Amino acid sequence: MVMNILLFLLAVLNYVHFSTAGLNYTSIRFTLVNPDFKTVDLTDNTNATGLFEEDSEIILLIFAWTEDTTTPWIKNITEAYHRRNDRKYQIIYVDWSYEGSTFYYHEVKIIDAIGYFSGDWLIRFMEKEKVDINRIHVLTHSLGCHLAGFMAKYIKKQLNRILHRITCLDAAAPGYLESSTQKKLYRGDAKIIVAIHTDIDNYGLAEAYGDIDFYPNGGLYHQPGCNDSFLESCSHCKSHDYWVEAIFSNKFYGRECDSWENYLEGLCENNRLLNFAGNMTSITIADSGIYFTYTNAEEPFLTNCIIKYDNYYDINDNYF
Ligand SMILES: *[C@@H]1O[C@H](CO)[C@@H](O)[C@H](O)[C@H]1NC(C)=O
Ligand SMILES: *[C@@H]1O[C@H](CO)[C@@H](O)[C@H](O)[C@H]1NC(C)=O
Ligand SMILES: *[C@@H]1O[C@H](CO)[C@@H](O)[C@H](O)[C@H]1NC(C)=O
Ligand SMILES: *[C@@H]1O[C@H](CO)[C@@H](O)[C@H](O)[C@H]1NC(C)=O
Ligand SMILES: *[C@@H]1O[C@H](CO)[C@@H](O)[C@H](O)[C@H]1NC(C)=O
Q1: Which terminus, N or C, of the chain has the lesser number of Cβ atoms within 10 Å?
Q2: For residue 223, is it within any domain?
Q3: d(CA 183, CA 146)
Q4: For 145-188, how does the pLDDT look when each residue is reduced to its tens digit (9 = 90+)?
Q5: What is the pLDDT of residue 304?
Q6: What is the pTM of this model?
Q7: 222 in a domain, yes or no?
């Protein structure tokens, strides 16, 4: 009861604040982050910087709700990509943290506008810097995934071209369970959507909305090693912790299988293995499907995952 009253008051405060002030678009920043973490502000975007002439993979890292430049996994993933030596990576932060730190359901209402705004910036960026759309890899987590969806839909409409790849680390479920495909991230928004699911039926979407849907440990809440609570969803965050390790180690194997139940029973052991950790073009549309893996409860999460949590999972949960 007290909780409900608090939530109601928060909602009223937010409504009053934002209905009068409107969105603060100038607070949304687009920043190139170099390997030494020195930054170049690209927000203004009027003149080419000449920094993108080489054929790099450009990771557009879209923050999630309440995340900012100090969020540990944001730092880790930046370092992880810069340390790879298979090709050059350039990381651009889409920092909407000024708008992105209020009441969650308020964020759900404004995320489309922020997505369109970011899409508009990206179009101008590509034009100015002469960057081909196929070099852009959008990487994001939770609510940021839906921001990416709106951004991608906007670009499709404006340019009649689509982004090459979006990698979504556990798309947010609250506010999106009943949404149409036009109101959330969904396959078709990019040529390839890779979706990692680690917190289904809690903070993460269960449905296979990507082209390639990967469910470590069946995507289940709770992930191994997690002691989730209402305030801290460790399972939801496992999506990005796995990704950080994957990019550092260049290994994140999933095996294709029609269901988690069949995977647990060992019926898919002859199916193909896919490494999710490569560069943006190492996965193609021919790899479309549903994939599973076990992970370890502690780091390293992704190597020698031989432990079968046979009694750990409720195998009646079948979402696929
Ligand atoms: C918009 O956000 C910036 C911070 O990025 C802040 O300095 C500025 O005062 C804000 N403007 C309004 C009208 O709130
Ligand atoms: C962009 O380039 C033009 C022409 O060189 C220059 O006049 C202008 O000041 C530049 N704008 C910015 C924001 O650097
Ligand atoms: C970030 O990296 C440090 C070690 O470099 C590790 O201890 C920590 O668990 C990582 N955190 C996340 C969120 O990935
Ligand atoms: C998990 O959380 C519960 C409740 O806060 C606590 O009693 C328990 O010790 C925790 N377990 C671990 C392994 O952290
Ligand atoms: C991406 O990785 C694949 C291997 O997975 C490799 O064949 C390809 O050359 C890489 N692309 C670039 C541009 O480095």
Answers
A1: N
A2: yes
A3: 8
A4: 999 999 999 999 999 999 999 999 999 999 999 999 999 999 99
A5: 52
A6: 0.89
A7: yes
**Ligand nearest, relative to CA of residue 28:** 1
What is the pLDDT, as a whole number, of residue 12? 47
- Token pair recorded at residue 250: 């260049």
Indicate whether 12 belongs to any domain: no
* Token code pair at residue 185: 């991230």
Q: What is the pLDDT of residues 39-58, one digit of tens each?
A: 999 999 889 999 999 999 99
Domain annotation covers residue 93: yes
CA of 28 to the centre of ligand 1 (A): 10
Pure H helices in the chain: 2-21, 72-83, 104-129, 143-159, 234-249, 260-264
**Structure-block tokens of residue 209:** 């909305």
Q: How far is CA 66 from the centre of its chain?
A: 14
79 contacts: CB under 8 Å, gap ≥ 6: 35
Q: What is the CATH number of the domain that holds 146?
A: 3.40.50.1820
How far is Cα 66 from Cα 161, in angstroms, rounded to an integer?
31
Runs of H (alpha helix) within 204-314: 234-249, 260-264
Range of the domain at 161: 23-43+55-293
Give residue 48's identity as a one-letter amino acid code: A
Distance separating alpha carbons of residues 28 and 92, to the nearest angstrom: 13
Report how many domains make up the chain: 1
CA neighbor of 112 nearest in space, from 154, 141, 159: 154
Pocket perturbation via mutation, ligand 5, pick of 281, 283, 284 by most ligand atoms within 8 A of CB = 281
